[in-house]
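In response to the reviewer comment on reproducibility (Comment 2.3), we provide here a single inverse folding case reported in full, input and output, so that an independent group could reproduce the run without further information from us. The structure tokens appear first.
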């Protein structure tokens, strides 16, 4: 007896599913649950949002969001950090921020968790860049390196004191050393 396989899940069907903790994502007709946050990952994620917002928010250049679902290009992804230029932040007719972001981030950042392969986070960043995201970062705390992807399809690896690229027009000067030094808490 031959059994027909179930048709792949659609984006609309995925969006009707109950939320999971940690969040589940939908890309290439597959549902994948994000790994549970751990110490290094969490600290880098929070510090990045604070650092980006310190430079960008007061001047209304951009805003960083943590674990925000973005639905675009037939995918629903939840980058660890999503940065949106101020004028692209979705808003309700009242002017309040929208709850659903059905647009790509301008800058998407993924942070590898221990024992997590690079393939899935890199797939998400490539999807972002292919759909209009200007910049992607893949942060690897274990290797103390940051892989960047740009809209021009350039991939570069940064370590040490090399200054990392940021969104155009954002005066943010960070190196890989700066990011990984956040992991050394004072006694």
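Designed residues, in position order:
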């Amino acid at each position: 007896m031959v059994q027909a396989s179930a048709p792949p899940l659609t984006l609309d069907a995925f969006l009707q599913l109950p939320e999971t903790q940690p969040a589940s994502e939908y890309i290439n007709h597959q549902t994948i649950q994000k790994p549970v946050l751990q110490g290094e990952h969490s600290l880098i994620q929070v510090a990045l949002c604070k650092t980006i917002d310190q430079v960008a928010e007061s001047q209304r250049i951009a805003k960083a969001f943590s674990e925000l679902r973005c639905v675009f290009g037939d995918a629903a992804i939840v980058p660890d950090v999503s940065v949106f230029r101020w004028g692209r932040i979705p808003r309700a007719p009242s002017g309040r921020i929208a709850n659903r972001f059905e647009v790509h981030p301008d800058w998407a950042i993924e942070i590898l968790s221990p024992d997590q392969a690079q393939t899935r986070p890199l797939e998400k960043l490539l999807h972002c860049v292919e759909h209009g995201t200007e910049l992607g970062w893949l942060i690897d705390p274990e290797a103390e390196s940051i892989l960047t992807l740009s809209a021009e399809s350039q991939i570069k690896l940064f370590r040490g004191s090399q200054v990392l690229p940021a969104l155009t027009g954002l005066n943010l000067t960070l190196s890989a050393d700066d990011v990984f030094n956040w992991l050394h808490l004072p006694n």
